[in-house]
Amino acid sequence: DTGVSQNPRHKITKRGQNVTFRCDPISEHNRLYWYRQTLGQGPEFLTYFQNEAQLEKSRLLSDRFSAERPKGSFSTLEIQRTEQGDSAMYLCASSPPAGSSYNEQFFGPGTRLTVL
Amino acid sequence: QKEVEQNSGPLSVPEGAIASLNCTYSDRGSQSFFWYRQYSGKSPELIMFIYSNGDKEDGRFTAQLNKASQYVSLLIRDSQPSDSATYLCAVREGEVRFGAGTRLTVKP
């Protein structure tokens, strides 16, 4: 399977717990994005990596959220002290290097988080 | 705040008709424009991308871009029930921003 993969697909947690999600991008893609999507809304940008460098982070993103991409391959998104408002689908997308013949993003299946 | 606006719908068209989906954006520096389709409970999948003013056709889909009016649209010809989904407009200027999506229903 050469698409973007995300794990776990579903996560149910209690308020106050920490959760971590993983994203494995398409292998030749050096750009990686995290989004959050709630019902009836489009994906909301969270953060962006080019290789291992985190180049952009949404100003709306709480400091409870942190993302890493230590070796420029897979990425993790951690949410500390989860709140019920964090319940959403967390989407990862990847795209090839800038200047490639195409630059569109390809999305993974998402991780659905439910905070009780 | 940079905005991408879409009519939320629902838009309902009969099978075989043309569905027209519209999107406006606020950032004049935007360079790339995308249409994604999202079925309920699934992640977005790319349908079309367009970078230059004018029309771009791919099968039953036509994307139209007017940078002067900051407007991008998607036409779906010969609509099929399987086209029923939410259509997301996305705009790239640095980061990618999505609209809230338009829900399309194609009735047999």
Description:
- The complex is a heterodimer of chains A (116) and B (108).
- Chain A has 116 residues and is mainly β.
- Chain A has no helices and eleven strands.
- Chain A has strands at residues 5-7, 10-13, 19-24, 31-37, 44-50, 53-57, 65-68, 75-79, 88-95, 106-107, 111-115.
- In chain A, strands 2, 4, 5, 6, 9, 10 and 11 form a seven-stranded mixed sheet that branches.
- In chain A, strand 5 (44-50) and strand 6 form a beta hairpin.
- Chain A is globular.
- The model of chain A has no long low-confidence stretch (mean pLDDT 92).
- With 108 residues, chain B is an all-beta fold.
- Chain B starts with a strand and ends with a strand.
- In chain B, a hairpin with a 1-residue loop joins strand 9 (85-93) and strand 10.
- Chain B is 0% helix and 58% strand.
- Chain B is built from no helices and eleven strands.
- In chain B, strands 2, 4, 5, 9, 10 and 11 form a six-stranded mixed sheet that branches. In chain B, strands 1-3-8-7-6 form a five-stranded antiparallel sheet, with no helix packed on it.
- Chains A and B meet through strand 5 and strand 10 of A and strand 4, strand 5, strand 9 and strand 10 of B.
Which tags fit this structure?
heterodimer; A: 116 residues; mainly beta; 7-stranded mixed beta sheet; 4-stranded antiparallel beta sheet; 11 strands; B: 108 residues; 6-stranded mixed beta sheet; 5-stranded antiparallel beta sheet; 0% helix; globular
Helix content of chain B: under 10%
Order of helices and strands of chain A: EEEEEEEEEEE
Mean pLDDT of chain A: 92
% residues in beta strands of chain A: over 45%
| Integer-rounded radius of gyration of chain A | 14 Å
Tell me the helix content of chain A: under 10%
Largest interface: A-B, 21 and 23 residues
**Sequence of secondary-structure elements of chain B:** EEEEEEEEEEE
How many helices of chain A? The count is: 0
Low-confidence stretches of chain A: none
Beta-strand segment tally of chain B: 11
Strand content of chain B: over 45%
Radius of gyration of chain B: 13 Å
Distance between the termini of chain A: 33 Å
Structural class of chain A: mainly beta
